[in-house]
Amino acid sequence: MNCVVGAIDVLVSALPARGADLSSEPIYDEEFALVAHPRWAGPSASDLDAIPILSYGPELPIIRRYWRSVFGRRPDGLRTTLIAPDLRTLLRLALDGAGMTVLPDYLVRPRLASGALVALHSPEVAPLNTLFVATRKPSGMPDAAVRAVRDAIVAIADEASD
Asked: How far, in Å, are 1, 10, 37, 99, 152 from residue 133 at the CA level?
């Protein structure tokens, strides 16, 4: 494998990678769910603006996308109580009752099934986020290691889709 500083061999991204030396393809559509500990269900769920928000980033990137897609508005009335740029941390905090968050379905599905989390809203069509895998286009012989990593990522995404 030729290692070049600044070159991408394999990338998983929420945006298709662009560049003449990159090949990008969609591999997985994750659905988003608005979830919280069961203590936030009931009367609190009817006034979502009153429930503390656990966000991935200060601009509320995932939450903002969910709100615009599902409710047709910006999440302007929400009270952000915590920002953690790690989905597993947000999941743990939601499980502990710290507030509500928007997470990919693959993270919350088992917790919803067990009752550890509740969906605070169930839209007819859940917002989607498409994940892409990009690889460096080989210059000459294809790189077997890059191909193996790419194939493993695609297999994981296919398994998650089932």
From this structure: 19, 7, 33, 32, 11
User: Model pTM?
Assistant: 0.80
Q: Compute the radius of gyration of the chain from its Cα atoms.
A: 19
Q: Which residues contact 54 (CB under 8 A, 6 or more apart)?
A: 81, 82, 84, 90, 93, 94, 98, 99, 100, 101
Model confidence at 45, pLDDT cuts 50, 70, 90, reads low
Tell me the three state secondary structure of residue 75: coil
Model pLDDT, residue 1:
43
**At what angle are helices 87-95 and 105-114 packed, to 10 degrees?**
20
- Strand 52-55 versus strand 79-83 pairing type: parallel
What's the token pair of residue 122? 């169930």
- At 25, list the tokens: 């393809």
Decide: helix, strand or coil at residue 39: helix
* Closest to 57 (Cα-Cα) out of 65, 45, 49: 65
**Mean pLDDT on 65-91:** 93
Residues 78, 122: Cα–Cα separation, whole Å: 19
**Domains, the chain, with CATH or none:** 10-28+129-161 (no CATH), 31-128 (3.40.190.10)
